[in-house]
Design a protein that fits this description.
Elements: E1 2-4, H1 5-8, E2 12-15, E3 18-29, E4 35-44, E5 47-53, E6 67-69, H2 74-78, E7 90-91, H3 92-102, H4 117-120, H5 131-136, H6 146-151, H7 171-178, H8 182-185, E8 188-189, E9 192-194, H9 195-198, E10 202-205, E11 208-219, E12 224-231, E13 240-244, E14 248-252, E15 257-260, H10 264-268, H11 281-292
Parallel strand pairs: 2-6, 10-15
Antiparallel strand pairs: 1-11, 2-3, 3-4, 3-9, 4-5, 7-8, 10-11, 11-12, 12-13, 14-15
Length: 295
């Protein structure tokens, strides 16, 4: 069902054996707009520690009782890998530590230790030529590496450079990588964004400011964002509308602005959204019909 993300904040988080803390934020990635973590303020004696819980460990949310059930015990959560702070950006090493501890699958593709050169922004290893490549080579022209063969005619059997093959680290490496200082880690997940942070971002069309981001509408089964809830402000008597994600051109995170490809007039004329009601199928159909007619 479609829900307002703002309504989730402050929910009680219930572990298998009882209350563990309060939901204080939602982290989503800005590529797929999927919820990646719930930020939970865990009560630990006199201190409050923030920890990250994946939607994979979340059960069916109880909207009436305002509770978020998770399939973990309090003991396991309290013993989970901790970082000095879980504010963004989150180090990839910390995410790997959580993934290993809770046995969550990797959501960002491959593990940090098995990433391809293109993911790590490293030069790709040389491609082994096939028969078609060989037929296209003009043997009369000197090829790359010929000068070495000419200089070392007796080294024809010398082994070439070995390709680096990814591997899982041993236990000692895991400890060093997962719990090193932030300054030493150097790899951060810049795609993770805070729901609390993005609230209030200005919506910009090619005609200027068009409204303010008031909420995110999320699917509480797949935990993915479906719409932006936009307050159009005084120009439309505080009318709210929902905008589908494909109208987003880009987001200026430094300037807190979301640029859209939809014109200001089209946005203002979109079906009004009553944020006191649930997003019904009838409203969604009306919304799709309107936006499809603009393409």
């Amino acid at each position: 069902m479609l829900r307002k993300a703002k309504d989730c904040i402050g929910f009680s988080v219930e572990a298998i054996d009882g209350f563990i803390g309060t939901l204080s934020d939602i982290y989503f990635d800005d590529y797929e707009w999927s919820v990646r973590y719930f930020v939970v303020d865990v009560n630990s004696g006199t201190d409050t520690i923030k920890t990250l819980i994946s939607p994979l460990s979340v059960g069916k949310i109880d909207w009436e009782k305002r509770t978020l059930p998770i399939s973990l015990t309090k003991k396991r959560i309290n013993a989970s890998p901790q970082q000095a702070q879980v504010d963004l950006p989150i180090s990839r090493q910390y995410e790997i530590a959580l993934r290993r501890y809770y046995e969550w699958p990797v959501y960002w593709g491959q593990s940090e230790f098995l990433d391809t050169p293109s993911v790590k922004k490293l030069p790709s290893p040389p491609r082994i030529p096939n028969d078609e490549d060989a037929s296209e080579i003009n043997e009369s022209e000197p090829q790359l590496g010929d000068e070495e063969r000419y200089e070392n005619p007796d080294d024809e059997e010398e082994d070439g450079p070995m390709l680096s093959i990814g591997r899982e680290p041993d236990d000692g490496e895991i400890v060093d990588l997962e719990f090193s200082n932030a300054e030493q880690e150097g790899t951060y997940n810049a795609a993770l964004r805070s729901f609390n942070e993005i609230l209030g971002y200005h919506i910009e069309s090619d005609q200027g400011e068009a409204g303010i981001l008031d909420d995110l509408i999320i699917d509480d089964e797949e935990w993915i964002c479906r719409y932006l809830s936009i307050n159009l402000g005084l120009s439309s008597k505080d009318k709210s509308v929902l905008l589908t994600l494909h109208w987003i051109a880009d987001i200026d995170w430094g300037m807190s602005r979301i640029h859209i490809t939809l014109s200001q007039s089209y946005l203002q004329n979109s079906p009004p959204y009553n944020n006191a009601l649930e997003v019904s199928k009838d409203y969604e159909k009306k919304l799709f019909d309107y936006y499809d007619g603009l393409r």
